[in-house]
């Protein structure tokens, strides 16, 4: 039987039904920003106990790379460009949050001196600190510490599940 001809309106209606039924996964975009000494930037957040990498939740219709650039500009007042994708990390549900896909980008080296706290988005960022990757573990969530250890200096993009490398089968 030949394929049924479908109008554009019917096609869009069918897609809308599927979109309403299919699961949606939260996407997060974060960046690894280093200073000339090789330390990474960690943000003290108003809504979390642990410090975290700069970035945030990807808005609908926004790419992860655009998201991390926007979030760093809005929250820290500095312009960055998303470089190489360092890792994609599937995060299981944690502390009330649903599972998510985290995209970690290399944001390069920030060599413009100290960050200006007057530019921070105070409702979200209460402080920003440069730390070595080894020292980061004392301040960040366990999954972030593991992700940094695995992905920060990896030669290729890493696929992680709960910050653990997935070995191809």
Q: pLDDT average, as an integer?
A: 92
Outline, from the CA principal axes? globular
In CATH's first tier, which class applies? Alpha Beta
Q: What is the total domain count?
A: 1
Oligomer: single chain
H/E element sequence: HEEEHEEEHHEE
Q: Helix proportion of residues, in percent?
A: 10-25%
Put simply, the count of helices is 4
Strand element count: 8
SS-derived structural category: alpha/beta
The major sheet is characterized as: 6 strands, mixed
Q: What would CATH call the homologous superfamily?
A: Nucleoside Triphosphate Pyrophosphohydrolase
Measured on Cα atoms, how large is the radius of gyration? 19 Å
- CATH-level-2 architecture: Alpha-Beta Complex
User: Which sequence of strands runs across the widest sheet?
Assistant: 3-1-5-4-7-8
User: At the third CATH level, what is the topology name?
Assistant: Nucleoside Triphosphate Pyrophosphohydrolase
Instruction: Kindly report how far apart the N and C termini lie.
Output: 40 Å
The poorly predicted ranges are: none
Strand content: 25-35%
Pfam families: NUDIX
Cofactor: Mg(2+)
Organism: Fodinibacter luteus
GO molecular function, one term: hydrolase activity
């Amino acid at each position: 039987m030949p394929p049924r001809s479908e109008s554009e309106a019917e096609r869009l209606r069918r897609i809308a039904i599927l979109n309403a039924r299919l699961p949606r996964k939260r996407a997060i975009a974060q960046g690894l920003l280093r200073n000339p000494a090789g330390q990474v930037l960690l943000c003290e957040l108003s809504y979390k106990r642990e410090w975290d990498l700069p970035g945030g939740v990807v808005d609908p219709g926004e790419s992860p790379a655009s998201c991390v650039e926007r979030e760093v500009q809005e929250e820290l007042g500095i312009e960055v460009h998303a470089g190489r994708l360092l890792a994609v990390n599937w995060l299981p549900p944690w502390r009330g949050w649903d599972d998510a896909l985290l995209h970690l980008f290399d944001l390069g080296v920030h060599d413009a001196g100290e960050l200006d706290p007057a530019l921070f988005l105070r409702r979200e960022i209460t402080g920003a600190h440069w730390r070595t990757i080894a020292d980061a573990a004392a301040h960040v969530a366990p999954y972030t510490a593991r992700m940094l250890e695995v992905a920060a200096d990896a030669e290729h993009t890493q696929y992680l599940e709960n910050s653990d490398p997935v070995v191809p089968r």
